[in-house]
């Protein structure tokens, strides 16, 4: 274990520590007025980070090559957990006792990364449409569909983007995607017509883009995002001094954590958060470039993309650039499943970076 950490890219750990530290401060501030016990969310997040640290150490110490031929068991487990949500859970959550819940869709994202990285690591000429492409898309499509039906369209959108990205950088022939896209497109387009809350979010966002649209035309959530971010100015209102987050900012410790950071830390803090995710993206690309094999390169890029695309969606929603998705800000927002799975994935990234020098 010490050998892995000795040769790993230490900048990964530094970026993660910075994100977790800023996130803890924001959760302490945002959650202070949300519970009778002012330290409830802060202490729970601290506990989740402890579990996440253990999972990151495990991910870093397991040779990433071991995942190459072990994709079936995790996939079956992930499918069972997603199915269990419909029977035992509440929307996206599965109760596990003691007041804690598991979000299986977080695990499903990581399963998609490993599964596609393995199959896309084959040589381009050896990937056949019926033998490889169709089973790959059906396998990922089942996970995405089960997540969407919970319903959790934000996470399903992330999983879809992740699938398309890995297929694209894996050099899947574009002709192999024509039929699956043609089949899936009508279902995607029809979603707003069957789920009114999705239609409402799209309509509200579209109205806000119309010429001459003012604050009175914004939906409640969008208005509170603008008020929180706008009141922060350049330097912010100061730690714990945010006004909007105390009263009307929805889900201030989860979906709206970026708005809390900007309100109290100002433009500088908001820009710093974006820079941290950009730094992680560059570190992941560097790790992928120096990976010993194609599987490791795809795995590294998939892990970083899955984190950054969630950050992009969350920040875009807070800035009014995208319809509300319910996607949280990785490593910043309150939540156990997200922290533990994300830190495990980052541990795998650490292991890949260490093997630039170490040969197992």
How many individual β-strands? 2
Largest sheet: 2 strands, antiparallel
Which bin fits the share of residues in helices? 55-70%
Instruction: Count up the domains.
Output: 1
> What structural class do helix, strand and pairing data support?
mainly alpha
Strand content: under 5%
Spatial strand order of the main sheet? 1-2
Oligomer: single chain
Shape: globular
Distance between the termini: 13 Å
Name the poorly predicted regions. none
Return the average pLDDT rounded to an integer. Answer: 87
| Element order: H for helix, E for strand | HHHHEEHHHHHHHHHH
List keywords for this structure.
single chain, 360 residues, mainly alpha, two-stranded antiparallel sheet, 14 helices, 2% strand, globular
